[in-house]
Write a structure and sequence with these properties.
With 596 residues, the chain is mainly alpha-helical. The protein contains 24 helices and no strands. The longest helix has 38 residues.
Length: 596
Amino acid sequence: MQMSKEFAVDLGEKYNKVLKLLEDSKFDPPNEPYASKCAAKEILIDMKAKLENTSNNQFSSSSELLKIKAMLGSVYLYLGMTSIEMEELSEGENSLQNCHDTIRDFFNNPQVVMITLNMYNQFGILWSQREPEKAKNYLHKAEQLYHKFKSSDNVAVDISTLFCSNLETQNEENAKQNFEKIHTFTLYYLAQIYGVLKDALKSAIYCHITLQRQLDSGDYDPIDWALNAATLSQFFMEKNGFKQARHHLAASSYIMDEYKEKLFSVSERNEEFDAKVEVFKHRSADIARCWAKYGLVLLSKSKERLLNHTDDISENCSLSADLSKMTLNPDANVSLEELQNLEFTSPKLGHYEKQITDKFVLIMQDAKLVFLNIQGWLQKAESYYTLETLASDHIEIVQDQSNMYFGLLFFEDNVDNQAKLHKRRIDLLENVIQQINPKYYLQYCRQIWFELGQIYSDILNIKCDKLREIEGRPSPHMLAKINHLTEKSIYSFTCFVESFKSDQEEEFVTQIPADFEKAVMQAYFHIGALNNKYITLNKKTQLANIEMSYKAYKKVVDYCKLNEKVIEQMPMEHNICKEMVTLLPVKMAKLAQELH
């Protein structure tokens, strides 16, 4: 028996209707989100019944039977995919298993291989949340099958071609592209699964390979590709892979510049064009922020490296800024070869890479070059993320600007210049804190209050050190400056701790959210220490300051009695507070006696 032309045409028409419905499903109304998918499933069920009935008949050739099996496997595949998208997971699993059983003898056959690869991918999606290890195994099966078939030099048959009356009508170039696209999806899903399995480095490797394949095929959205590359760079730099991080950021900027040239080359300016320009500006600002984060982390990691190797760093430090030179554990799930291939084969990115170093910073001159780059990128981001339009992002950019000066501080030896850098941080943070409402931006206000408290305290320490070096009587201006800095630091820390009070009348909170316990206790510790730094000859004022200091230290001690786990987070500060709670009453009593 041979498949009739009418039967083949009918199946082809139904298959095309299914594709159209699935394509239109993204436009379904919110109250009927699966309307088109349900209609597609009904047609697929009808196709399944006809193919199952036909497969029970005798065919004149094995090629006819293979085609029927391939089409039936395709129908089961689409039923599985549609059910999974409709969150009917059990039904989706059954359909995928039926697909597997139908084509199990032909996995590597050119007519079936694309079905098999898609099936493995869908199994990966199905099990990704429930059993990620199982999902990983299915995806690796797809990866292995791809390489095996690729080495055979055969051309895979498109699923859509199966539903044409003649296989010879296939466009081989399109079929090859679709075959490669399925494998790109496999690699993308593997990246996600390794992320779920907490193997971040393996996940990053698969992300890079996916991006490279998209570049090679030309099948990608430039904005999405650039954002993904920039996001991946953030992972690399946290792992000290500054060479790889810079490379991916450079690729991101290259793609954005290429897209910009095409975008503004069109002559027609309409609403669609304006929308594209807005998206471009938005994502350009995001990528500028990623570049800025690169510079900030480079300064931070360079400082950390120098602090950990105070001797001859060139001889005693093996830490590299290149992931391909890292020492792998024997049980590592990645190879050095994989780490050495984390660069794009195209395009040429030297112009973008040379704007900032990928080496650890050693001296002020190098740190300042990094600083200037960060400053430029943050200014670009700030021009898009304004306080009036996107306040949360604007506040974060201001915080990054403060961190930019903080990163430079470590490399600055001159204490007067250090104080100036601190002052720049204060100007930035005071300006933004005055413009935002704590009711709506409490999270950011808390961060800024605490940081301001630390900055004022740091400048105060610089001024106190200079005071100790002065021979003779210090100037009234200098003493007033020290008291002013003390007052501002106490005020900032007080704003921070009072933001945790549930009632303005409440004297003291008995339970602070776990994430903030250490910070609040440290703020009280600072308030206790700062009240002892006021300079005054008035004994009554001295007594009042010591009493405030005692109260702050005692709050730490009292809170830690009720919440002992906090002591583990700040043992040194807790010991000092306990000691001061014992010593300060003696000092207060002596002062009180003198006053009396």
